[in-house]
């Protein structure tokens, strides 16, 4: 699914990522760890197709439409309701049975009762749950999650634990987290960035 060979990324004179190589097969979970500034976010952005390597080669065996990405920004519109946000993304991804899929995700992530409220009224944890719904909406074959547990309370984190366990059975996942113990049992591969 993913092959990185000597991948490097530079922004101006600053190196964000140096000589990263790994392979990830379909259906595996790659756990990416490292200190702040080690290049985790940069690597995940490269995998998701949001940036290109400066040097080296990176091959991702999924089209852009088959990638679900959750980064540091939620990528939801604060002036829209939770439902409207997911409906917009569902249209962009041409999700079949869109209202049913949106309803199922909103209910699963505990946002059903807030579906008609503007996202600007949501707590940070609710926004993170909505961002997870957005990333999962089109049932991607490759799920790239950068610090997905951020702002989640314990019930939200437990929900994400279950979601990752279910998806790791038949999807390819790349997860970066400062709490690697949460994902360690599911990881088939690990990559520690320095």
Summary of the model, kept short:
This protein has 194 residues and is of the alpha/beta class. Helix content is 31%, strand content 27%.
How would you portray this structure in words?
With 194 residues, this protein is an alpha/beta fold. The protein contains six helices and eight strands, in the order E-E-E-H-E-E-H-H-H-E-H-E-H-E. It has helices spanning 40-47, 82-92, 98-108, 124-136, 154-167, 181-184; strands spanning 2-11, 14-24, 29-34, 55-60, 67-70, 142-146, 172-176, 189-193. Strand 6, helix 5 (154-167) and strand 7 (172-176) form a beta-alpha-beta unit. It is globular. The two termini are 24 Å apart.
H and E order: EEEHEEHHHEHEHE
- Runs in which pLDDT lies below 50 for 5 or more consecutive residues are none
Major beta-sheet overview: 5 strands, parallel
Global morphology: globular
């Amino acid at each position: 699914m993913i092959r990185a060979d000597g991948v490097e990324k530079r922004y101006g004179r600053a190196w964000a990522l140096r000589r990263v190589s790994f392979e990830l097969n379909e259906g595996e979970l790659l756990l990416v760890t490292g200190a702040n500034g080690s290049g985790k976010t940069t690597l995940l952005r490269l995998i998701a197709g949001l940036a290109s390597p400066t040097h080296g080669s990176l091959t991702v065996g999924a089209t852009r439409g088959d990638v679900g990405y959750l980064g540091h920004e939620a990528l939801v519109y604060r002036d829209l309701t939770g439902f409207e946000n997911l409906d917009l993304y569902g249209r962009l991804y041409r999700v079949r049975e869109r209202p049913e899929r949106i309803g199922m995700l909103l209910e699963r992530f505990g946002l059903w009762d807030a579906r008609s409220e503007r996202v600007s009224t949501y707590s940070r944890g609710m926004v993170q749950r909505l961002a997870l719904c957005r990333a999962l909406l089109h049932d991607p074959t490759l799920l790239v999650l950068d610090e997905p547990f951020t702002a989640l309370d314990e019930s939200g984190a437990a929900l994400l634990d279950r979601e990752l366990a279910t998806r790791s059975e038949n999807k390819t996942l790349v997860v970066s987290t400062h709490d690697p113990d949460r994902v360690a049992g599911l990881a088939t591969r690990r990559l520690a960035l320095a």
